Amino acid sequence: LFDIFNGTDTHAWERNKLSSKFGDSEIYMVSWSKDVKESSLRVENFLGTKNLDNCNLIDLGSGKGKVLITWRELYPHNEYIYGIEYDKKLNRIAKENFKKLKYKKVKYLCSDISTVKIPDEVPEKTIVYYMFNPCGKKTLINFFKNNRTKNSFVIYFNPVFHKDIKDIGYKLVFKKSSYRKGSTYSIFYKK
């Protein structure tokens, strides 16, 4: 319904090209707005705040931008909402979606998360990483090896590599199971 009402394209599945350094990307699947909202509210509760306007919100494998759109609606004053997606077609679709919705304060990087380094412009505030199992184990571990993990959360939907997130120093702070893999998620935190 979101796409019908807004003339956007966020829901249709897309077969990704395996262009990751490790060739282990996953098929694009949309995150449901209600799940993004629910998981973000859980992070708010953990932080003891009413919103995440003072956090860096980074979607790994941001696809067509549904999570970024949902965050923009939830946190209209946040200056740092950022998406990373390597597929040029998905990047183009996301930019078209933002244009239709007249969203401006979203940064989008077309890059492979196995090699990307979050830009220095990212303030040293709390980071909330969001991902819907975007890639394989090697890519995921490489991203967290190359980027800041201190004072950060990971909202991980369809958490296939649950143990590996813990192995890089994150502590599980919340877990939700659902009959639908797309609504099953874990939230991790690292001081």
Can you describe this structure?
The chain is α/β, with parallel strands linked by helices. The protein has 6 helices and 7 strands. The protein has a 7-stranded mixed beta sheet. Helix 2 packs across helix 3 (66-74). It is globular. The model has no long low-confidence stretch (mean pLDDT 87).
| Strand neighbour order, sheet with most strands | 3-2-1-4-5-7-6
Shape designation: globular
Please mark out the parts with pLDDT under 50 across 5 or more consecutive residues, or reply none: none
**Cα radius of gyration in angstroms:** 15 Å
**What share of residues is helical?**
25-40%
Distance between the termini: 39 Å
**Number of strand elements:** 7
If helices are DSSP runs of H or I spanning 4 or more residues, what is the number of helices? 6
Mean pLDDT: 87
Q: How does the helix and strand content classify structurally?
A: alpha/beta
Strand content: 15-25%
Taking the sheet with the most strands, its summary is:
7 strands, mixed
Spell out the helices and strands N to C: HHEHEHEEHEHEE
What attributes does this structure have?
single chain; alpha/beta; 31% helix; 20% strand; seven-stranded mixed beta sheet; 6 helices; 191 residues
How would you summarize this macromolecular structure in one to three sentences?
With 191 residues, the protein is α/β, with parallel strands linked by helices.
SSE topology sketch:
Elements: H1 2-6, H2 33-47, E1 56-60, H3 66-74, E2 81-85, H4 88-101, E3 107-110, E4 127-132, H5 137-146, E5 152-157, H6 162-167, E6 171-176, E7 185-190
Parallel strand pairs: 1-2, 1-4, 2-3, 4-5
Antiparallel strand pairs: 5-7, 6-7
